[in-house]
Specification:
Rossmann fold; 2 domains; 6-stranded mixed beta sheet; globular; binds 2'-monophosphoadenosine-5'-diphosphate
Length: about 270
């Protein structure tokens, strides 16, 4: 049976085995999906051990996405743009590296949440790895504008310069949180790691336009701190990142198996569990 796994540290909490088992059952694919806990200084050895014992592919999670990018011998354009790899596929001597996170985000927004991005004003909070991976897929959805805001303004500015050539007709801007004062957005996406410390980005008031969606890439039980604050600040719609998790998994499944699973029932059953 073809073997796959999610590799990370920590990894025991991962929902990926559940998600991929559901996809495999739904599509009739004979495959097994495990977790691999790699030592913090032992990512490459753990990948090689998995591959040499017949592993076909890996999902890569915190903190190894940059190492996976470096390890890949061939990379997709979206992995190059993200500078990080969350999906490895093994084919002979080739280690193919892809990044499905941004595509998962856009698919969740547009398909699951019925929030088309074309013509919209989008605010992306954060300028770390999660944010960087989202920029090109977001631009591909044709928003009117994309503002990348970060606590340290220089990192947001650097990201904007890095992706300037990909912006096309989209107005691409960046800056610190105070630069957002007086602006309004239709979609505000939290790609900061603030929630890990139970914090929320310190944003000016009045950012949510009528009907705006607040989207947190994080998820947990119930609303995240970002979602709670967004509701108080006037966001009309709220979403956490569980749908993104399922959609990026579906995209990885497609990379490996060439089949696109139906994510709806899987997302629904995960929601019922949490
Ligand atoms: P990830 O890979 O999850 O994106 P990262 O690369 O370490 O993690 O980036 C973390 C991001 O969260 C950064 O944009 C960081 O802002 P700074 O660059 O100013 O550090 C942001 N972040 C973390 N904690 C935050 C907080 N409490 N408020 C606002 N932004 C925060």
């Amino acid at each position: 049976m073809d073997r796959y796994a999610v590799i990370g540290n920590p990894v025991a909490h991962s929902k990926s085995p559940l998600i991929h088992a559901a996809f495999a059952a739904q599509t009739g694919q004979a495959m097994q999906y495990e977790t691999v806990l790699a030592p913090l200084d032992g990512f490459v050895a753990a990948v090689e051990a998995f591959r040499s014992t017949g592993g076909r592919g890996l999902n890569v999670t915190v903190p190894f996405k940059l190492e996976a990018h470096a390890l890949a011998t061939r990379r997709s354009p979206r992995a190059e743009a993200a500078g990080a790899v969350n999906t490895l596929a093994f084919d002979g001597d080739t280690l193919f590296g892809d990044n499905t996170d941004g595509a998962g985000l856009v698919r969740d927004l547009e398909h699951n949440l019925d929030c088309p991005l074309a013509g919209r004003r989008v605010l992306l909070l954060g300028a770390g790895g999660a944010s960087r991976g989202a920029v090109v897929p977001l631009l591909g959805a044709g928003p009117r504008s994309l503002f990348i805001a970060n606590r340290s303004a220089d990192k947001a500015d650097a990201l904007v310069e890095h992706f300037r050539a990909c912006a096309g007709a989209c107005l691409l801007e960046g800056g610190g949180f105070p630069a957002l004062a007086g602006r309004a957005f239709d979609v505000i996406i939290n790609a900061t790691s603030a929630s890990l410390g139970n914090a929320v980005p310190d944003l000016p008031a009045g950012l949510y336009a009528d009907g705006a969606l607040a989207y947190d890439m994080m998820y947990g039980q119930g609303d995240t701190p970002f979602m709670r604050v967004a509701r108080e600040r006037g966001a009309s719609r709220l979403a956490d990142g569980l749908g993104m998790l399922v959609e990026q998994a579906a995209e990885s499944f497609f990379v490996w198996r060439g089949i696109r699973p139906d994510t709806g029932p899987v997302l629904q059953s995960l929601r019922q569990r949490s």
